[in-house]
């Protein structure tokens, strides 16, 4: 990985209590409902073992069947209802902070960008997924 690349952060405030947001973020039956960036994609499968050394695996796929990929990593830190950190298969790091903010929960996700796509493209994609999560979690 190019170590000169700075981590990228995306954020959203969800109007729901932290424990509810944490559950919708981590339970596979919820992950499959929100873990995609646009309506022409979906997440047909997810597994999530939320503990240090546990793995998260989510299949993201175009609904027309033209493309799919596995998104996944291994947890390095887990603090229930507060913080997650994991390492992706290619060694990049991801962290997610859940903070109570008034009657809502601020979710801050930070990730190491990959070197294939422009950083602003990656940030927009991760933000779109987080925005989709917000929409789902508040529904």
Q: How would you characterize this protein structure?
A:
Belongs to the AHA1 family. It comes from Dyadobacter beijingensis. This is Activator of HSP90 ATPase. InterPro entries: ASHA1/2-like_C, START-like_dom_sf. The protein is α+β, with helices and mostly antiparallel strands and 139 residues long. It has three helices and seven strands. The chain has helices at residues 18-26, 28-34, 119-138, and strands spanning 8-14, 41-48, 55-62, 68-79, 83-88, 93-101, 104-111. The chain has a seven-stranded antiparallel beta sheet. Strand 4 (68-79) and strand 5 (83-88) form a beta hairpin. Helix 1 packs across helix 2. The chain is globular and about 40 Å long. The model has no long low-confidence stretch (mean pLDDT 95).
Per DSSP E runs of 2 or more residues, the count of β-strands stands at: 7
Strand content: 35-45%
Task: Work out the helix count.
Answer: 3
Give me the strand/helix succession: EHHEEEEEEH
- Ends apart, CA distance between termini: 38 Å
Percent helix, as a range, is: 25-40%
| Parts with pLDDT < 50 across at least 5 consecutive residues | none
The overall average pLDDT, rounded, is: 95
* Main pleated-sheet profile: 7 strands, antiparallel
Strand order of the largest sheet: 1-7-6-5-4-3-2
Rg measurement, Å: 14 Å
Topology:
Blueprint (H helix, E strand, L loop, with lengths): L7 E7 L3 H9 L1 H7 L6 E8 L6 E8 L5 E12 L3 E6 L4 E9 L2 E8 L7 H20 L1
Antiparallel strand pairs: 1-7, 2-3, 3-4, 4-5, 5-6, 6-7
Quick summary:
The protein is of the alpha+beta class. The chain has helices at 18-26, 28-34, 119-138; strands spanning 8-14, 41-48, 55-62, 68-79, 83-88, 93-101, 104-111. The chain is built from 3 helices and 7 strands; from the N terminus they run βααββββββα.
């Amino acid at each position: 990985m190019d170590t000169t690349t700075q981590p990228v952060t995306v954020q959203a405030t969800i109007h729901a209590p932290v424990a509810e947001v944490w559950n919708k973020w981590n339970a596979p039956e919820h992950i499959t409902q929100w873990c995609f960036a646009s309506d022409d994609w979906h997440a047909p499968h997810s597994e999530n073992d939320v503990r240090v050394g546990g793995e998260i695996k989510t299949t993201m796929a175009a609904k027309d069947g033209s493309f799919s990929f596995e998104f996944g990593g291994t947890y390095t830190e887990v603090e229930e209802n507060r913080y997650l950190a994991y390492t992706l298969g290619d060694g990049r790091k991801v962290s997610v902070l859940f903070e109570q903010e008034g009657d809502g929960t601020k979710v801050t996700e930070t990730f190491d960008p990959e070197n294939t796509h422009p950083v602003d493209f990656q940030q927009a994609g991760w933000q779109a997924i987080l925005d989709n999560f917000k929409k789902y979690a508040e529904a």
